[in-house]
Design brief:
With about 300 residues, the protein is an alpha/beta fold. The chain has helices at about 5-15, 20-25, 30-45, 60-85, 100-105, 105-115, 130-135, 200-210, 230, 280-305, and strands at about 50, 55, 90-95, 120-125, 145, 155-170, 190-195, 215-220, 240, 255, 265-275. The chain has 10 helices and 11 strands. Strand 1 (about 50) and strand 2 (about 55) form a beta hairpin. The longest helix has 29 residues, at about 60-85. The termini are far apart. This is Transcriptional regulator, LysR family.
Length: about 300
């Protein structure tokens, strides 16, 4: 069956007249009559009862009208989806994001996407950055927002969005907060840290190693970075988290920074994609948005939290 024949059939059924339907679709009456005849021949049944100039649907015609409408709406919806997909404003983008990035960068991104591309869907995968980088490498995510310090520039392209500092933190009543602290003072403490494969853990371990000190003593090793602040709030354990998490309203708001230059890690958060990998139009739309406006958007968003 031809979709145009179905459309003309629907118009005749709606208007109940070849004359009015022909006027509506700007076709001749014979053209519409031939469309009806082709459908009736194909389906081997009458679709209309002719009553003078009136055209009334048979039971088979009523059933076909229902199906024809569903088909037309499906075709129109598919057309909108394909057009939106081609423009990058519809479709699915698989986005990997670490806990810090998810908390501080994603809200503003989602707000902008809802405004500019409401039909675009984010398939959000959160986790530790080492696992997310591997997911990007193997093609299980399209894009990644993560720290850029451990990204292989030969494999991935990056675009910086936000500067961040990772610091040593403790509960508000920790004894170390009452004195001037040196790096060696931290050696006697126990820590809550992520696995050694995580970039922040490697950086902290290297800091102790480069100063010829024992590595941090691990009391809890966790793959839940968001849980780390809560695990030390009422203990004497130390942790190593983004300074952003110490702001009011966030998980580490009750924690205090142990100020020490040697244990302050400067890092950049940004967009990461595989070099020369295919980007779907929706993913390309997100990349273009972040490259054009991402840094300003996220900087402004984080400034509002201060």
């Amino acid at each position: 069956m031809d979709l145009r024949d179905l459309y003309y059939f629907e118009m005749v059924a709606v208007y109940g007249s070849l004359v009015r339907a022909a006027d509506r679709v700007h076709k001749t009456q014979p053209a519409l009559s031939k469309s009806i005849q082709r459908l009736e021949t194909t389906l081997d049944t009458a679709l209309f009862n002719r009553e003078g100039r009136r055209m009334r649907l048979t039971p088979a015609g009523e059933l076909l009208l229902l199906r024809a409408r569903h088909l037309r709406l499906g075709v129109e919806e598919t057309q909108r989806e394909i057009q939106g997909f081609a423009k990058g404003t519809a479709g699915v983008v698989r986005l990997g994001c670490g806990p810090t990035a998810a908390e501080f960068l994603l809200p503003r991104l989602v707000e902008i996407l809802l405004e500019l591309a409401p039909e675009l869907t984010l398939d959000l995968i959160t986790g530790q950055n080492d696992l997310l980088v591997n997911s990007l490498r193997t093609g299980h995510v399209d894009l990644l927002i993560s720290p850029l310090s451990a990204i292989d520039s030969e494999v991935f392209e990056t675009h910086a969005l936000l500067e961040d500092e990772v610091v040593v933190v403790a509960s508000g009543d920790h004894p170390l907060l009452e004195k001037e602290v040196s790096l060696i003072d931290l050696c006697s403490c126990r820590w809550v840290l992520p696995a050694p494969s995580v970039a922040t853990r490697r950086w902290l371990d290297n800091t102790f190693f480069n100063h010829h000190l024992d590595l941090p003593k691990i009391h809890i090793q966790t793959n839940s970075l968001s849980a780390m602040p809560r695990l030390i709030t009422h203990t004497k354990l130390l942790s190593f988290i983004s300074r952003h998490n110490l702001k009011l309203g966030h998980a580490g708001a009750n924690l205090k920074e142990i100020v020490l230059k040697q244990t302050t890690m400067n890092r950049s958060f940004g967009l990461v994609r595989r070099r020369e990998a295919y980007l779907s139009p929706p993913a390309a739309f997100v990349v273009d948005l972040l490259q054009r406006e991402g840094k300003a958007l996220f900087t402004a968003h984080c400034s509002q939290d201060i």
